[in-house]
Amino acid sequence: MGDAFIRHIELLGYEKRFFPSQHYVYMFLVKWNDLSEKVVYRRFTEIYEFHKALKEMFPIESGDINIENRIIPHLPAPKWFDGQRSTENRQGTLAEYCYTLVNLPHKISRCLHVVNFFKVRHDDMNPVTDSQIKKPEVFLLPKDSKKNPTDITGPIVLQTYRAIADYEKSSTSEMSLKAGDMVDVVEKSENGWWFCQLKNKRGWVPAAYLEPMDGPDESEEQEPNYAGEAYTVWKSYTAVEEDELTLKEGDTIEVIHKLLDGWWVIRKDETTGYYPSMYLQKAGEVNTSVKSEQRNRSAPPRRSTIRNVKSIHKQGRKQISQETYRRNSKKYIQNQRNMGRNSQNKANVIIEKNEPEDKPKAQPAVPPRPSKDLILNRCTESTWRKIL
């Protein structure tokens, strides 16, 4: 593989730290060309110094020679005192800056100055902490703000979840857990992998191993939609459990229930079952680079396969049986068919009523020719002579 370069940089939010003194750092999710994803932390003063050095390296692209040639984005200088308000308000500018930076010509976006600045440092993996000092406060960007970085509505404090069983990581991008560990969730992905942090550790964790502190998490899940949402299979999967489906790439299916652990209930014709959501994409949607990189990633474990589960909640999650999914799905399909027949019958009635107006008027039938005896008995003498 060639030199390392960055494919995408996403601003996740910021942290308010209290050691060695109160200060703020921004959190960035950096996606590399080897498909790895790392979270790094940078102060705004560091980012600004990086920006100034980048401009000096590329004077033409920074507009120093001719302002019309500038393609390197602008970045405001840090204030004399950066408080929480300025840190928060600056997020939109930083998110847009990172997006533009990665999409600059390769000689800039893939230069060593950019690559080295966003590489993981020792402090990123092991931030300096003090048990006597207050724990850092984490604020996430709202999801809508990531789509529109200039529209920041306010910070979101990270949610804390608890591990219900031991989990051993299978790759360097994941994080191992022990039952009872309390983690902060940085990012929730609908494919069933959540990015979490635990003290000085960070990594991806299966959502199936986590539970919220205030009760079972089915309240976060959507209700089943038996009308179904059209999706396409872009990666084949062979069923392991009895309630899973085996599908091939290119198959079209309908998603009827999206579950948090990344295993969705889908319908193929009149058959229902579980399938990894990370192997599905909306019908008609273009295959993105994010999904392409998941081809080499395994599906997360299902909740039902976790052993030695230890929940702190007396009431467990409400689980819908596969038989209930099938029954309700068939019932919905039958209702739709009945509605289709009724509408077809109504349409036929309307056509029949309108038919006489459209068709030409029917011609009268030609009566049969009368017999010779009938003519002799009923007709005049002149008519007789014609037939005699």
TrEMBL record:
Protein location: Cytoplasm
One Pfam family hit: NCF1_PBR_AIR
Secretion signal span: none
UniProt keyword Heme, yes or no: no
GO terms for MF: phosphatidylinositol binding; superoxide-generating NADPH oxidase activator activity
Annotated ranges, domain PX: 4-125
Name this polypeptide is given: NCF1 factor
Species whose genome carries this gene: Gymnorhina tibicen
Organism phylogeny: Eukaryota, Metazoa, Chordata, Craniata, Vertebrata
Gene assigned in the entry: Ncf1
